[in-house]
Amino acid sequence: MKSSRFIFPFASVAAILLGASAFADDAVVNTSDKSFLQNAYEDGLAEVKAGELGQGKSANADVKAFADHIVADHTKANIELKTLSDSKKVAVSESPSLVAQAKGKLLDAKSGEGFDKAFADAMVSDHKKAIEAFEKAASEGSDADVKAFAAKTLPTLKMHLSMAEELQNKVGK
User: Fold this and answer.
1) Domains of the chain: total
2) Which entry of 20, 26, 63, 127 is 20 to 30 Å from 113 by CA?
3) Would you say residue 82 lies in a domain?
């Protein structure tokens, strides 16, 4: 019985040390990088949903073509981002944020030229915000993989912004 008294405290110390080690392993990226991964993934999901709305709701060939780019490019980026998040042990949501979902419902309620204009406006606004977040992650991120992903994705986001601004000019501001 006396020996179990001595083993028990050592077992507790070992459990504490193992637990601390497990927590350290979970903290693969810092809070800022984790937040970037989570937000970028949610925003990417929202972009795909908006693009799918553009594909289905618009009769405008320019809107449909742009929506095709958005769906294809953001789906590809989301797959890469999910793989990166998983490798960094960062859990990401499987759906857009509640705010993005609400914006999507407002967009879905529109039709015709009103939809096309709102879609183009949303794409310009969303991509400006995305570029800002990705530039910050690329320059200020702590994790090399997160920084590399952000830097690699920036040219596509900038191309999307340029295309969205052209679309905005075509469908009216």
Assistant:
1) 1
2) 127
3) yes
